[in-house]
Amino acid sequence: MTVKAAVAGASGYAGGELLRLLLVHPEIEIGALTAASSAGDRLGQHQPHLVPLADRVLAETTAETLAGHDVVFLALPHGHSGEIAARLGEEVLVVDLGADHRLRDASDWQRWYGGEHAGTWPYGLPELPGAREKLYGTKRIAVPGCFPTGGSLALAPAFAAGLVEPEAHFVSVTGTSGAGKSLKPHLLGSEVMGSASAYGVGGAHRHTPEFAQNLGLVAGERVTVSFTPVLAPMPRGILTTASAPLRAGTDLDAIRTEYEKVYHDEPFVHLLPAGSWPSTAAVLGSNAVHLQVTVDADAGRLVVIAALDNLTKGTAGGAVQSANLALGFEETTGLSTVGVAP
Amino acid sequence: MTVKAAVAGASGYAGGELLRLLLVHPEIEIGALTAASSAGDRLGQHQPHLVPLADRVLAETTAETLAGHDVVFLALPHGHSGEIAARLGEEVLVVDLGADHRLRDASDWQRWYGGEHAGTWPYGLPELPGAREKLYGTKRIAVPGCFPTGGSLALAPAFAAGLVEPEAHFVSVTGTSGAGKSLKPHLLGSEVMGSASAYGVGGAHRHTPEFAQNLGLVAGERVTVSFTPVLAPMPRGILTTASAPLRAGTDLDAIRTEYEKVYHDEPFVHLLPAGSWPSTAAVLGSNAVHLQVTVDADAGRLVVIAALDNLTKGTAGGAVQSANLALGFEETTGLSTVGVAP
Amino acid sequence: MTVKAAVAGASGYAGGELLRLLLVHPEIEIGALTAASSAGDRLGQHQPHLVPLADRVLAETTAETLAGHDVVFLALPHGHSGEIAARLGEEVLVVDLGADHRLRDASDWQRWYGGEHAGTWPYGLPELPGAREKLYGTKRIAVPGCFPTGGSLALAPAFAAGLVEPEAHFVSVTGTSGAGKSLKPHLLGSEVMGSASAYGVGGAHRHTPEFAQNLGLVAGERVTVSFTPVLAPMPRGILTTASAPLRAGTDLDAIRTEYEKVYHDEPFVHLLPAGSWPSTAAVLGSNAVHLQVTVDADAGRLVVIAALDNLTKGTAGGAVQSANLALGFEETTGLSTVGVAP
Amino acid sequence: MTVKAAVAGASGYAGGELLRLLLVHPEIEIGALTAASSAGDRLGQHQPHLVPLADRVLAETTAETLAGHDVVFLALPHGHSGEIAARLGEEVLVVDLGADHRLRDASDWQRWYGGEHAGTWPYGLPELPGAREKLYGTKRIAVPGCFPTGGSLALAPAFAAGLVEPEAHFVSVTGTSGAGKSLKPHLLGSEVMGSASAYGVGGAHRHTPEFAQNLGLVAGERVTVSFTPVLAPMPRGILTTASAPLRAGTDLDAIRTEYEKVYHDEPFVHLLPAGSWPSTAAVLGSNAVHLQVTVDADAGRLVVIAALDNLTKGTAGGAVQSANLALGFEETTGLSTVGVAP
Fold first, then answer.
1. What whole-number distance in Å separates Cα of residue C230 and Cα of residue A155?
2. CA dihedral D213, D218, D221, D222 (to 10 degrees)
3. CA–CA distance, C70 with C7 (Å, rounded to integer)
4. Where in chain B is the domain with CATH 3.30.360.10?
5. Residue D305 and residue A190: Cβ atoms within 8 Å?
6. Reaction catalysed (chains A, B, C, D) (predicted)?
């Protein structure tokens, strides 16, 4: 018996990626596709790569058009999912790909996003200590932000094992699709090709409190976070350079052993063999996170590199992975660790 | 009962794409992986995106390492497959992704490639008139060149129906992976990024006789071919602008009707709705060809735009599609029309 | 005594490139900078690469703000320059980088652009037979379109010498800056990176009549033109593949001799040595056009490849070159044949 | 009286950029051009963008071919310049664009590069405290590494003023040309386009001791350095995210005031207005470094973003700037702060 899913925000990048994944999901049938300003259009006008769905017509995003599904994926701008979720019924699995239900602390929400906090839902990053259990059978999932996904997995084992001081530093090089289809001058092809640029510097990016929340929970103490995103000329992919000060007596062997132990059975976290380094090309379109760890002895720091596809594991693939757990499917159903390269 | 396949040339781009597709093929099991200078390496060193095969070790490409398989895919430089195929036994399905067995005319082979002609095998472009039938149950398949794949499908219906004069003009914008992993200065990232350049101009590209062979067979008369490839800053994709002089009395309606008729039931040829134009992004990683047709009334020409992924439909996907026919599987088994975008 | 120049449309790509060139022009002083919706902004907000002008404030584009200059460069959307030019006085050199004054035939204007034809000004492509003389001392210049610049120079010598039949075929691969800073979804970085796409196919691009006008004048008879632009993932550059049917008795030697003769003394047209092929990288930021010619004997066609920078020789550099002639300066003043590569 | 300059390594990226700059340098005449494996070739085969020098033939790099010049620029792999410099005579200005003469500590040289240390020359980063004075009239210049150029300028004012703790963190996103024209698989266009990847992680990159040397001299105490380079899909440009722990009592106003004071009169360091952030596109081909500073209050860190062109200010432009000082020219002669964008 397949499960029927609606996708709200089907004309955007996150919605498109979700549909790409659902098209090969053996247990999920694609139901209503909805959008805001694109309602009434054929999906093919917005997602020409989704040939099997090209002639589906986009409905308006309302509680009515989303009703009658077992699962509703919300790929909406932040601030829009709380109200719709409230009207969908408690028996429906609602998966929020936006930011609304990620933060635990309402004051964090107000500082970083503004407006009323919609509440906190189980956090859809099963590889984080304690997270998977809360996803089994849940009816509400908050999909993590694309940056905290890779960054948290990069340092969580070190914090959990007390190998580093509670001070994390992240610089994440990201492709442009993370910004969505927004018509902003700095996102034009002419501007981004051939150029790297920084934004949200100095702790100004909204994913910062999510990093701190995740790592704080793992470390059992407040973790100071410095995070800088850098926009690079590629459509997809995030490469995060993560580091933290090593605690005395920790060496690379101990770290590697710890990471191998933690991630050995994780289907989507792939610790590379020593000497290999992650690249975003190797995870394009896949749900895998590639990691490599090393020690900078002179600087006294653990350095971890993490690569993922911001739209797949960083958004839509993470959503499907968590939905699988909520629906009682095998966690890997419909998902792949195989990238499209070159 | 699954079929066991070996891949020769597994460290290259064509071999890598083939493995990506075989990993999701429900009827084919991946056997030996072989290479030339990379023999002895882990596959993960060369294809980090193929996580499930990362620890497979590359054998040397010999008739011995390839023996014992039901299917052998040869992704080798031209001139290497004839001898190996001869030693593989007639009961084995041999699929040659290289150029050796595409041309019918030995003098064409000698002019364009040099050396002895290895022979002519059934041509793996099922959508070409008369081609599909020859692939059912065959034990030898010559996979078409990436450029003739799109170019032939772009104009074949017009030639078959006698709508245009026998004079075809092609300019194909291609990504860099078509040139393979060759360590040549003009293929360095620093050289190709931000740059478009022409090569093989004036009928100098080796795919030219293959265009002429395909269209001549369809038209039933000699077709003059002008073909220019242009290298563009992208890893994958071919966008072909094809044109031919319209015969008197032909209009766009007649052309569109003809193309719709010819391609209506083809699972991998997708004629876009009027007003939409193909882009290579929409077919990245997919086995689809996107087409659009129009008439340039002032110039008196039919103009057809075709987009495909040179590594998928243009090489490895085309190989799997034809192998499906040879093996008695559904033609679409393990293949997709869904691209990875953006 | 330097000449004072105003630039209307200073916040756009053409305006920015013009300012980049004027900053090193020894005879021209930069006066008013104007814009439409960006009026009031610092130039640095829109053109961060023009550091010496970063604090200049953009005025509104009106006849008043542009008054009091010896030269006024108009980098405006089409349809806007006629009226402003009329109010600037006949003693002012007005250089229109837009399309308004390029076409000689008012019916062509109405068919391709619509609205009233603003008139025809001397055409700023000095390398075209007969064009240079009309630019000496003129007070009005119509800067050519970026596509017809390269395409016309590619085939003009062949048409002028009667070496080819009057039937020209062009496919031009172009960077994205030719479309300006328009906020359109298909111009987003996420859409253009990794993708080639066609547009304006079938003679639908507005530069088509300009090709036909240029070549018709050179050939002395009507030339049929087929033109297709292809958008490629790079900010700048146009690589044009041009071809035409050879007349009987013409061979490559004759063609090469003719092209060498015609372009030998042209400072900005660089016929490459035999065996070298143009790339847009080699002309980035330069005012040079790189050409290579060959003969496709099987197809019976002359094939010419031309590379130029659409913003430099294709727009702003061409404007400065023609303005130099109009102002009595050396034609090459302030311009360079040196590109920025890699 | 112009000065005559030879360029050793003229076929590489650094050599090509140097020639691009020297072509517009009013006081320097270009003499011998030399190369290793490319000796005997026309320069146009390797640097098609340098049209005015296209027919110059490359000599072999020897003390003899380089003799008879006032200035010799050495753009050679490390380990090659010491011996040649020794044979060039003390009256010749030798500018080493390689690493041989940058480090002061022979044991650093041996650890990071191996082999005998060639000695320490005046360091060609005039904007560093104390550096400019040592360049006036010198006959030997060690041009800084491309990464330490931006990184040192990003944090030097803070260390000099004692505003931060002696612990610097750098992640530098770099274009591919920094790796030179090396024929390595990971530098192929197919590999780098669409991909970000890390290398030299954990303090393994050879520029690390140069960062530490520069900042240690400025701070007057040992500075711990963590440095990670990230390869991004663009030919040129480095965007560095630099940070350090703030000392108590330091706020953004104090920092901004200090940076404005230090860089106010520097012709090539451009502190952007508050709210603007650097991009590498804005400095392409220019000798400028664009900086922006901020404070991450939660993390207690100063964060500085620096953008430069690795081939211009990061290599060849820096070389010309320092050579100007050595030769008694105006420091800015032949150099520009204007980039080529978009």
1. 45
2. -30
3. 11
4. 147-308
5. no
6. N-acetyl-L-glutamate 5-semialdehyde + phosphate + NADP(+) = N-acetyl-L-glutamyl 5-phosphate + NADPH + H(+)
Q: What percent of chain B has pLDDT over 90?
A: 96
Phi, psi torsion values for A148, nearest 5 degrees? -65, -25
pLDDT of residue D204: 87
Distance from CA of A115 to the nearest CA of B (A): 32
C237 vs B196: CB contact, 8 Å cut-off?
A: yes
Domain D3-143+315-327 has CATH 3.40.50.720: yes
Question: Hey, what CATH topology would domain B147-308 get?
Answer: Dihydrodipicolinate Reductase; domain 2 (3.30.360)
- Left if phi > 0, otherwise alpha if psi is -120 to 50, otherwise beta: which for A106? alpha
* Cβ neighbours for C107, distance < 8 A, ≥ 6 positions apart: none
Residues of A whose CB is below 8 A from C190 = 13, 175-177, 179, 181, 187, 235
Average confidence (pLDDT) over C37-54: 97
Cα separation of B251 and C306, whole Å? 32
CB contact under 8 A, D201 and A228: no
Alpha helices in chain B (DSSP H): 13-22, 43-46, 63-66, 81-86, 106-112, 131-135, 146-160, 189-192, 208-219, 252-263, 317-327
pLDDT for residue C1 is more than 80: no
C156 has a pLDDT exceeding 90:
yes
Phi, then psi, of B50 in degrees rounded to 5: -100, 65
- CB atoms < 10 A from the CB of B96, how many? 28
Average pLDDT of span D264-287: 97
* Chain B residue whose CA is closest to D235: B190
CA distances from A172 to A229, A280, C191, D197 (A): 5, 12, 21, 11
Q: Bridge partners of D168?
A: D225
Q: Looking at residues C110-122, what average pLDDT do you find?
A: 94
- pLDDT (average), residues D217-221: 97
The C-alpha of B106 sits at a distance from chain C's nearest C-alpha, in angstroms, of 18
Average pLDDT over residues C150-176: 98
pLDDT tens digit sequence for D167-214: 999 999 999 999 999 999 999 999 999 999 998 998 889 999 999 999
What count of residues does chain C have?
342
Residues of B in contact with D185 (CB under 8 A): 181, 183
The identity of residue C316, as a single letter, is: A
| Contact residues, chain A, for B14 at CB < 8 Å | none
Q: Does the predicted TM-score (pTM) go above 0.95?
A: yes
- Minimum Cα–Cα distance from D283: chain C residue: C49
- Partner-chain contact A188 C176, CB within 8 Å: yes
Distance CA D134, CA D254 (A): 29
pLDDT tens sequence across A157-198: 999 999 999 999 999 999 999 999 999 999 999 999 999 999
Nearest in space to A164 (alpha carbons), one of A246, A107, A226, A108: A246
Measured between alpha carbons, how far is A301 from B158 in angstroms, rounded to an integer?
66
Whether A173 sits inside 8 A of D232 (CB atoms) is yes
Residue B1 has pLDDT above 70, yes or no: no
Residues of chain D with CATH 3.40.50.720: 3-143+315-327
Which residues of chain C make contact with A179, given a CB cutoff of 8 A? 190
**What is the per-residue pLDDT across D153-169, written as a single tens digit (0 to 9) for each?**
999 999 999 999 999 99
What gap in Å lies between CA A14 and CA A96, rounded to an integer? 11
Shortest Cα–Cα distance, B90 to chain A (Å): 33
Minimum Cα–Cα distance from A280: chain B residue: B49
